[in-house]
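Journal club side-thread
Mid-discussion, someone asked how the predicted structure for our own chain would compare to the paper's figures. Pasting it here so we can look after the session.
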Amino acid sequence: MEELKKSLMDVSVMVSSKMDEFQQRLLAAQERSPSLEQTPLTREFEAFKSSVLFCLKNLQAQMEILFKVQEEQEMRSRRKCLLLHGINESKDENPGTIANMLSVLLKCPNISEASFSRCHRVGIRRDDKPRPVLIKLREHCDKDKIWLAKMSGLKGTGITISEFLTKARHNVFMAARRHFGISKCWTRNGHIYVIGANGERRRVNSMKDVDTAPASIPPSTNDSKVTSPKLVSNQEDRKELITSGLLQLHIMFCYLLNCTLSITWT
């Protein structure tokens, strides 16, 4: 999805560049022939340029919606996952040893190997740092027990627990920590929360939210309310949305080519 967004951005820049180049050629032709300024072609080109930029803007907005839908679905699939950091690697480790460690440290006797649907290391093995352990709980209530007990149970152990965020959301989280401070930024159920200079809690959803946040964040009217664009219902709707946008783009290019040929012959 990130590559698709980048490709669309490249197309947008290329189309804008070509239209600016064409407009310069048109202005140069008008200087050579002042009568050309009053021709329908000039007015049509201006109307076409506005239409193309409008369509590209809409296409980018559609892509943003698709990206948010895809990320939300990915984050939903990770809602029962946690990452355990700082656990030394050993050859004889297994899900049972991880479960027993959590049960003892967090005083959660109900946590056992049977509580996990997945438990394994993630990332590339390194000599200087142990890889994090990814666990996926079968029940969301078990995840909540571990998450709530981690503050007191893991103090002084060198072990930390974090949520398994998507790459995009992790980048926003790290940017928020740099902007607001580590102690004033946290995640809960995949959502990122911060505390501004005025002591008000607020949710941040994107890099734009972080970059544009003032030193004192205005209070949120309803922190629990998720403000997101209307989600596309299913995969078929998403395919139709992309196809429609690409068709619009194809029509734009064809029209631009016709305009180029017209001004050339003129």
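Post-session note: Residues 215-235 have pLDDT under 50 and may be disordered.
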